[in-house]
Structures are given as structure tokens and as C-alpha cells.
């Protein structure tokens, strides 16, 4: 369930990695282990072999290879990091180095490169889905005036059926997993079963609350239908509103082009350094390494501002139309 490093304090910050063998263990050592005998006792008690898989726990104190294949002792007290499932040393000086290596790894520019390459690989699918959503939106705007009453009830029924179907599937998966987990009672199987139970209960509570809301708010459906009907009239009297999203999209494309250009410049900043393969790569040092975080915040902030401008424009036009005698 957890990843344990034989020498967690041996950290190479230049290459952004922990220079230590990593093992899968079922429990982290929650107290300091001072000798090989303590490591052997821990393995026999918890079922977690802290030495390399080549050694059996019975060989820890007798095999001469234990000096290289077992962790450097005293093994520091450690605790699992939530979500990451890594055994992190509790010792403050070692933990500071461990945390710095983890943050540096997350901020590594190679993550950015993988993200860009993933988007470029799937660009045809992304463009196709964008065009599909545009066509469906245009069709919906045309027919919304004529089928507003039917549309609201269809959406309501679909939401209810979707909630019921999702809840039923989760309970079915839980029941199926419970039957199969009885044969192999591993910790991971128990965790999966517990997670499915939590998801199924959460989905059930959500569905019940949704049903209650539907019962209480059923009279408000008439108001929703009236609003849809007015929205249909607005598009008839203000046809240029249809083009407002296109202007917003055009402005967003200009901004995103600028943002990607700056991102590419950030990706190639730094000093050229030859690597082990004989190629030259650019390595960022200092504050430049974290600049792309700032750049991502700028992307979200300005994109939201452009979308808010569209919302203000549409709201102003609709209000002016609605209150004009």
C-alpha cells in the first residue's frame, strides 16, 4: 500500500529525485528501528519487509548482503503522506529535504512538456468535440422556444434516471466486489471495497436529496418553463446575441495564443547543459523554475475575466430588451 525508501534522506536536488531504492510495504515504521534485529522483528510483526525483496526476513541478521540490501540504520520514524502514500521521515531536518524534493518534482518543467504533448496528440478529438458542442448548442437555441415545456421535463427526468442508474451501478459493483474480496482478503481489496461503499452511500444520499428537492420545487418548474420561453423570444428579437459567444471565443483564442507563446518561451529558458545521453537540454534554476505556476494563474484569471465580460454584455442586452415598453 505504501512506498518505503531505504535511504529517504539521500536526496539529489539537482536531478530532482530521491537516490534510494523504493519498496512496496504494507506499513511504515512508526518508531525508530536501531538494528537489523529491530528491522527483522518489524517484518515479522507487520508483514512489511523493509529490505530488498531478495532477502527473506529470517536472513536479515545472518546474510552478509544485508548491509547493502537493507535500509541504513537507525531507520528513522516515518508516517505515510496522505494521497501520495509515501513513507516520509518524521525527523524535521530529513523531512524538509524530502518535502523539497517532492515539491521540486511536482514543479518540474517535464510535467508541462507532457501536458502539452498530450493535448497535441489528441487535438483532432478535442476539435471534433468542440464542433459537436457548437452544433448542438445552435440546434438547442433554435428549438428552445417551441419545446421549452417538453425540454424542461426531459432534462428533469434524465437527471433523475441518471442519479438512480449511477446509484444502482455503484451498489452492484460493491456487492460484486464484496463477493470476490472474500476469497482474497488483501489490504488493497479492503480499501477498494470501503471506497465503493462510501461512493454508493454518497450517491444514495445525493439521489434522496435530489428527489426531495424535485418534490418541493415542482411548482417552480412552471417558472423555469416561462424563463425558457422568454429566452426563446430574446433570441428572435436580438439575433446578434447568437454571435456574442463567437466574439468571446475569438478574444480567448488571441489570448490563448499569446499565453502558449509565453509558455513555450518559459519552457526553453535556463542554461543549456549536456546530459548523460550527449544531448543538450535547458535546465531552469532559481525562481524561473516556478514561473509557470504564476503563468497558469494568469491563464485562469484573464480567461474568467473575458467570460465575465460576455456575461455582462448578454445580461445588459437582455435586461434592456425585457424592460423596454
From TrEMBL:
Which top-rank group of organisms is this from?
A: Eukaryota
The terms under GO molecular function for this entry are: choline transmembrane transporter activity
Q: Which UniProt keywords apply?
A: Membrane, Transmembrane, Transmembrane helix
Q: Does the keyword Membrane apply?
A: yes
Location in the cell reads: Cell membrane; Membrane
Q: How does it sit in the membrane?
A: Multi-pass membrane protein
Task: Please give the start and end residues of each transmembrane region.
Answer: 125-144, 150-175, 196-216, 222-242, 249-270, 290-323
Q: Name one GO cellular component term.
A: plasma membrane
Output the InterPro entries linked to this UniProt entry.
Choline_transptr-like (IPR007603)
Purpose: Choline transporter.
Specify the protein name.
Answer: Choline transporter-like protein
Gene symbol of the encoding locus: Slc44a1
